[in-house]
Design brief:
This protein is α+β, with helices and mostly antiparallel strands. It has helices at about 5-15, 30-35, 40-45, 80-95, 120-125, 170-175, 190-195, 215-220, 235-250, and strands at about 20-25, 50-55, 65-70, 75, 100, 130, 135, 145-150, 205, 210. A 4-stranded antiparallel β-sheet has the order 1-2-8-5, with helices on both faces. A 4-stranded antiparallel β-sheet has the order 4-3-10-9. Strands 6-7 form a two-stranded antiparallel sheet.
């Protein structure tokens, strides 16, 4: 049996080789302390020794989109599909190493109802920091990523560390939020945001089959090496809003 140190190195190398570029290992004890009773790892997965936090970066608005499946009027998320692929790769690694994996529910249930966001767990293990938008901000993608989890009985060593908050005096997400849900102090009025983005007229239809939500907090944030280019916004209502803001700042 491999040591915890060796196994941890191998799964991190595997994640990198599989281009899972947002990846970390969380301490089960930490999650048990902060999660809602009944939805803690110790309640759901008693033999779990570690929780993998992994993500999918979104390089463009299309990858954020909801795609019409052509049957029954349902839509599926492109990023959710990619997260499923990454989850299965990690599950295969753990299985081949002789360990079990648990959870990973994509559409509610399990740890997703623990009261502890994946973003907050990711912040605690040094993947990024929580910005004024209440989104996780990473060096590569800024706020433009989705996160998921997978519990395992593998004795992996948890990550630690803290990324310094770099929002500073920037208020871009707050100023461009169409619902006024971002308060600017890290508090996010989720219901207010939800009420706006779920309104049909506020959907952004790229084609008949693909649409996205408002996403202004994702689009406008200046952080991250991968940005949704300004050229993509030319001729749209985003460009008009930018001109308005530039006029106000003069």
């Amino acid at each position: 049996m491999k040591s915890a140190n060796q196994l941890t190195k191998e799964i991190k190398a595997y994640a990198e080789n599989q281009e899972i570029d947002i990846f970390g290992i969380a301490d089960v004890k930490m999650i048990n302390e902060h999660a809602r009773k009944g939805r803690r790892p110790q309640d759901l997965y008693p033999s779990a020794k570690a929780v993998l936090i992994f993500g999918c970066g979104m390089a463009d608005p299309f990858s954020r989109g909801w795609v019409y499946n052509g049957q029954g009027g349902a839509y599926f998320s492109l990023t959710s599909s990619e997260l499923e692929n990454r989850k299965w790769k990690l599950m295969a690694f753990l299985r081949n190493a002789g360990y079990q994996s648990f959870g990973g529910e994509m559409h509610g249930g399990g740890m997703l109802e623990s009261g502890l966001r994946m973003a907050n767990i990711a912040e605690r293990i040094g993947i990024g920091y929580i910005g004024k938008s209440n989104l996780l901000i990473t060096e590569k993608y800024g706020p433009r990523q989705n996160l998921h989890f997978l519990a395992t009985d593998a004795p992996l060593l948890p990550d630690s560390g803290q990324v310094e908050n770099q929002c500073g005096s920037c208020r871009v997400c707050q100023e461009f939020c169409t619902s006024g849900a971002i308060m600017g102090d890290g508090y996010f009025h989720a219901r207010q945001c939800e009420a706006v983005i779920n309104c049909g007229p506020n959907k952004i239809h790229h084609t008949r089959y693909v649409n996205t939500d408002c996403d202004m907090c994702l689009r406008m944030c200046p952080k991250g090496k991968h940005h949704w280019d300004k050229e993509e916004r030319q001729g749209t209502w985003f460009a008009k809003l930018e001109k308005v803001k530039q006029g106000e700042s003069k």
